[in-house]
Amino acid sequence: MTEAGTGVGKSEIGEISNASPAVPAVDVRHLYRTFRTTGKEFTALADVTFTIPPGEATAILGVNGAGKTTLSKILATWLYPTSGTVNIFGANVVMATAHARQHIVAVFGGDRGLYPMLTAWENLSYFAAIRGAALPKPQLASILDSVGLADAAHRRVEEYSKGMKQRLHIAVGLSANAPILLLDEPTVGLDPIEAARLRGTLAELKNRGKTIILTSHNLTDVEELADRVILIHTGRIKYDLPLARFKELAGYRYRITATLQHPTTEPEFEHHPNVDGTVRVTRLIASDEQTLITRILEQLQPCGLVDFTISPASLEEAFTNAVHNNDDGGAA
């Protein structure tokens, strides 16, 4: 069994059996999904096209109502497209649904989908059994340990907190050992320590070749796990970029924040008065060139420079800018 917080033991959970690396893990072509309610037609997804290679971790981002959940349900084979094609390791989600489901497991969390009168151990054993894969006790114990439920394995789920139920959903997903793990808000309801622990488990799976697709409003999940970001806006893909390039949409690479004893008249600095009478200024810079940083600091020395920090671009600011700007987006 692995040590707490170190992820999943390879020998205990088993090898991740990716299909041929020449076949995309996910291949989506001109996907449309419409819904009809009270005589009106609503387009949730329009002309969505992308591929995900095996072993990549992809974050699907967007504001509420953008189409993320609809896309996730189609990838999970829970919802059919109106038109277009979706293949999971070459298996079409409409024509070969059962085959596609062998390659992807979806974890949507929430209070539903678990048996409250059963223990976590019994839930995990049951869901493995109905997939025709009875798991040995060491493997069950390793999975529960990897999500921090080893000490609560034999408690009824009805006694679990929301966060504990979320971790059990993740455990059920891990027990399937499918090559693609689709996660919807994986750390919702978790405290910071358990969220970090779960991200460590997912990072270990990623390092072993698991293809991970996640939607999350917790951008720490995205920053620590994703190789790539697909931003959906009003049902269409607006950006499809590697994580580093997506972060550049913040408009800067690094931010300098300095505390001064006296105000500066430099117009490019944002001024924030401090309660102790000092002034905090912020300057956004577009590169990491040391000469530029030095020049900025030299400008601040006459103002009584107390201290300064340099921080990288904010994923949150990149996301906000990407949603609100009016360009046509970008591709990798």
TrEMBL record:
Q: Which UniProt keywords apply?
A: Antibiotic resistance, ATP-binding, Nucleotide-binding, Transport
Q: How does it sit in the membrane?
A: Peripheral membrane protein
Instruction: Report the locations given in the UniProt record.
Output: Cell membrane
Do the record's keywords include Transport?
yes
* Record's keyword annotation contains RNA-binding: no
Q: Name one GO biological process term.
A: response to antibiotic
Give all residue intervals belonging to the ABC transporter domain.
26-259
Kindly report the protein's main subcellular placement as a broad class. membrane
Show the GO MF annotations.
Answer: ATP binding; ATP hydrolysis activity
Q: Name one GO cellular component term.
A: plasma membrane
Annotated family: Belongs to the ABC transporter superfamily.
Q: Which PANTHER family match?
A: ABC TRANSPORTER ATP-BINDING PROTEIN, ABC TRANSPORTER ATP-BINDING PROTEIN NATA
* Annotated protein name in UniProt: ABC transporter, ATP-binding protein
